[in-house]
Amino acid sequence: MQKKALLVCICVYNDNGLRQGGNMHSRDLIKDLKKQGCYFVRHGKGDHQIWYSPKTGKKFVVPHPKKEVAIGTLRSIQKSAGLL
């Protein structure tokens, strides 16, 4: 008899309608950043992009393309962008 695993993802959204908690695909993160007024500045080293948030006046690095951005990296980016 084969065992099957069930993967459940619980997504929590904040007041801005942005996803929080758990890992996020970099493509979805970039969509959220654009929705909040952040914009692409330039390419960084390797697969990294430099973005700017007019809300905080900070530049920050977004790894792209990346299937999943780790939770600590995601929270750091959201904090720099003024989304948290």
UniProtKB/TrEMBL annotation:
Signal peptide: none annotated. GO terms for molecular function: endonuclease activity; hydrolase activity; mRNA binding. Keywords: Endonuclease, Hydrolase, Nuclease, RNA-binding, Stress response, Toxin-antitoxin system. SUPFAM superfamilies: YcfA/nrd intein domain. The keyword Nuclease applies. The keyword Manganese does not apply. InterPro entries: HicA_mRNA_interferase, HicA_sf. Belongs to the HicA mRNA interferase family. This is Type II toxin-antitoxin system HicA family toxin. It comes from Phocoenobacter skyensis.
